[in-house]
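Figure 3 (text version): structure tokens given as input.
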């Protein structure tokens, strides 16, 4: 604009893109130039019809979140701090340098006479700490947590050790320091500040807790995923059953959470196709680095396919005449993630022949 064109009026600035919209746009761009992963639209449509049938039967909703024995049964500040803490630690739970069938290479955490593996080992460790009187939700304790305290916290009942213990210690320290300095020692205050807006809570997390900034560089361009940050919001919504501080007017804006298991499920259903070169690496149990081209493409395809599925499943459920065939709310990225994650667990033996990509990273 020239000086002659300046009418003295203040021009509105463009609204910044929400974190989840950045994830969507990143995924769409990556898939447009992807070399190793493609999407089979026919398989996606077939899967959408299968999912619509499953969702129409009910049984998948925010209410189901508390069904797991390790999760909080209350909707209060304790639950919020539990959710934030476990998601500060929610990464890299696959066993050994490569996936092994040997129990000696795996790790498990025992709690109340039961052994837990995977992400549930972290939940069990936190609950065990509470039972033992360790002030695990005291921000000052977290800010000064030591290597020995972390090793005790995540001690296992097997010969395997939980990976990345030093990174977990750093994340716990970061959580404690930031909560103390900015939020009165509790993540509950972050929820209050978000005021029922999921994207605002995401922004608070990403702005203040660097360990949640799950971004890669792909062919020179920033690619956003924000897996753990989005799970924090989703878990609070689920725990509070879309009420109180868990009511978010824009909850459907969240995407699915791109980890290493959901891509396995989508590949099992044929929704994604991997190049021969990538298949060879996966079957050889090659460990990728965070930000590798193949790793970014696998995660981006997960987001892209999930967006297609959410749209098509809701169209199917609403029926040709536009009438809602099932109770609201509609299927969103959170509920789709919950279903696919549970499907993988209950069909583990069926998927043994489908390798999943392995990365040692603090982001997932």
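Below: residues designed for each position.
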């Amino acid at each position: 604009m020239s000086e002659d064109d300046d009418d003295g009026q203040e021009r509105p600035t463009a609204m910044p893109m929400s974190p989840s919209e950045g994830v969507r746009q990143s995924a769409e761009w990556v898939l447009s130039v992807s070399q190793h992963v493609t999407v089979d639209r026919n398989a996606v449509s077939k899967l959408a019809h299968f999912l619509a049938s499953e969702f129409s039967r009910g049984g998948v909703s925010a209410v189901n979140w508390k069904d797991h024995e390790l999760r909080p049964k209350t909707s209060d500040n304790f639950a919020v701090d539990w959710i934030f803490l476990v998601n500060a630690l929610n990464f890299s739970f696959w066993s050994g340098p490569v996936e092994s069938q040997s129990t000696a290479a795996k790790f498990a955490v025992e709690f109340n006479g039961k052994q837990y593996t995977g992400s549930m080992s972290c939940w069990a460790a936190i609950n065990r700490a509470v039972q033992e009187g360790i002030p695990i939700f005291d921000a000052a304790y977290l800010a000064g947590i030591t290597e020995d305290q972390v090793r005790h916290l995540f001690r296992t009942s097997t010969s395997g050790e939980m990976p990345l213990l030093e990174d977990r210690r750093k994340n716990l320290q970061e959580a404690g320091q930031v909560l103390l300095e900015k939020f009165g020692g509790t993540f509950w205050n972050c929820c209050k500040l978000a005021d029922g807006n999921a994207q605002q809570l995401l922004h608070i997390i990403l702005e203040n807790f660097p360990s949640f900034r799950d971004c890669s560089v792909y062919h020179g361009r920033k690619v956003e995923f924000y897996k753990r940050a989005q799970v924090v919001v989703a878990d609070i919504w689920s725990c509070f059953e879309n009420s109180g501080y868990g009511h978010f007017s824009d909850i459907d804006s969240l995407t699915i959470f791109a980890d290493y298991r959901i891509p396995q499920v989508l590949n099992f259903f044929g929704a994604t196709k991997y190049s021969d070169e990538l298949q060879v690496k996966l079957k050889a149990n090659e460990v990728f680095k965070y930000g590798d081209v193949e790793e970014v493409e696998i995660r981006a395809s997960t987001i892209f396919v999930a967006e297609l599925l959410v749209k098509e499943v809701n169209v199917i459920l609403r029926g040709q005449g536009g009438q809602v065939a099932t109770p609201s709310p509609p299927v969103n990225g959170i509920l789709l993630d919950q279903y696919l994650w549970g499907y993988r667990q209950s069909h583990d033996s069926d998927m043994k022949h489908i390798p999943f990509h392995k990365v040692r990273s603090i982001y997932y």
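Confidence is low (pLDDT under 50) at residues 1-15, 98-104.
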